[in-house]
Structure formats: C-alpha cells, structure tokens
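We treat protein structure as text, and this decision shapes the records that our systems exchange. Because each token names a local backbone shape, the row as a whole describes the fold. An entry from our holdings is shown next, in its original layout:
>
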Amino acid sequence: MSSRHCILVGAPVDSGKRRTGCLMGPDAYRTAGLGTALESLGHTVEDIGNVRPAPHERDNGEGLLYQPNLTRAWTEALSDAAEDAMGRGMPIFMGGDHALALGTVRGVANHAAKVGRPLFVLWLDAHSDYHSLQSTDSGNLHGTPVRYFTGQAEFPGFPPVPNPVAPENVCMIGLRSVDTAERLAMEQVGIRRHDMRDIDENGIARPLEAFLDQVEAANGMLHVSLDVDFLDPAVAPAVGTTVPGGATVREGHLVCEILHDYGLMTSMDLVELNPFLDERGKTAHLMVDLCASAMGRRVFDRPTRSYNT
C-alpha cells in the first residue's frame, strides 16, 4: 500500500445499545495517537472532527427498539460523511458503537457504485449483527447493520439502501456469539462466516486470504469493520459486549498485516470502544496499533509500551 490520505471521521454513536460510553471513543483514539501513528508511516492525515446526527425527533422510549430516531439520524449523517470522504481519500471512522456501520457502509457503497466498482466488507466481530428490526430481542440496533446494508430486510424510517452490498461480498471472521434468528437468516444467503472454531482448526490467514483473493479478482473496494470484541476481552477489555475466546493480539496483527500486504482496503471502521471500561488506555492503544499494522507498520516497528504505569 502506497502513501494514503487518511481522513479521520469521529463517529460518537452511542444509541445502538443501552450501555453508554462509546461516545467517548473518537477522542480516545485521538488521545492514543492514531493520527501520529499514521503520519509516522508516511500517510497524510486529515481529522475532520466529529460528525453530528441529522435533525430528528426525540425518542420517546416507547416500543422495543432503543433510540431508533437518533440511530436513523446518525445513519443519514454518517452515510453523507462517508460518501464525501471516499471521494477525497481513505476514511477511518472512529466509533462509536457498531450501529455507525448502518451509515458508513451505506455511504461507502454509494461511492463504490458511483465509480463502478463492487464493494466488499470484512466484518471482524464476535457477533454477526444480522438482525432485522423484527428479529432483535434486545432492540439494540448495533446488532442490525449487516442485514441493513445488504438490503435483506425492511428498515422502515431508515434511509433506503440504493446500493446494497451483495451478501456473497461479505466475510465475517471471529464469530462466537450468533443468535438463532441471525444464523437461520444467514443460512439463506451467501455470507462467508468463520467462527473461532474454524480459526482454531484452520488458522486465521487461510479464510482471510481466500476472501481477499476474491476482492482482488473483482477489482473490488474493501471496507473493513473492526469491532473491539473481535479480540479476546483479556487483551481488549473496553467493550460492553465481552465474549470470551476471541482473537489474540498476534492474530489481530496478522489479520491487519495481511490486509496491508494485499493493499485493497479503501475504508475502515474502528468500533465499540468504550473508554469508560478500559484499563489505562490499553484497548485504545491496541486498536491504534492494529490500524497502524493495516496501514503498513511491520513487526519490528512496533513501539514498546507498558500498561502498568
């Protein structure tokens, strides 16, 4: 990957679930030195600040869905911001909970359609986030983005999805908490799914490289959505949806190093960081390090850092 113009987009979305704190994520990434890390790798960095939700009616707390009006407003605003940023460089969306991907992927897909290239999505997450508005038991909309941006269910009140991502262009790696309704729905479409048993048995490089080969063959654009809970909570505690048995630090870096080797990534989400739950910035720094690996930092270039002082 050659030098890129990286556009940092703050997405302080905290409406996708009931446990608050992700709105502090963008500033935690800034404090952990994301911009400086990217500049040290030869990239130019433009931080456009935090996006604000579009005008919307206040949520009244009625019904199962949690803060649907605010989440729709975030979807509209982030979609516009993503489409604009894609025309000027490589956006890195600093979240914010995973409901932000309702907007970021919609906007990136609109840009991809505009330039006549297919969009592929790599979903690095413990969860599939494939609920519809009807199938979610919790009402938390951070569990719905993939169903939305693939156009596989109706989302009344949300912006329509004019350029849905083909299900076969989505690859999920790291799954270990998938609800029955999501699993049954995904079995009807062509989404690639690799849970942690698959990774334990076959390694993490093989399924990733097979997917990236598909992206490369199609001259596709690649959006990477990296959730903190892709990683094991022992190494990344700053997330409200901890699921034991996640990726190790080394597996996380290997994924990101392979992404850099292929040079296909055109946009990225960093999501579900809740600094309120972190330990001396441990998770924020790790996520910055992973992003840096995806952007060209090699094994021998990593800084030595103590988390005990």
User: Anything to note?
Assistant: The chain has a mean pLDDT of 95. Residues 68-86 form the longest helix (19 residues). The chain has one domain: 5-297. The chain has ten helices and eight strands.
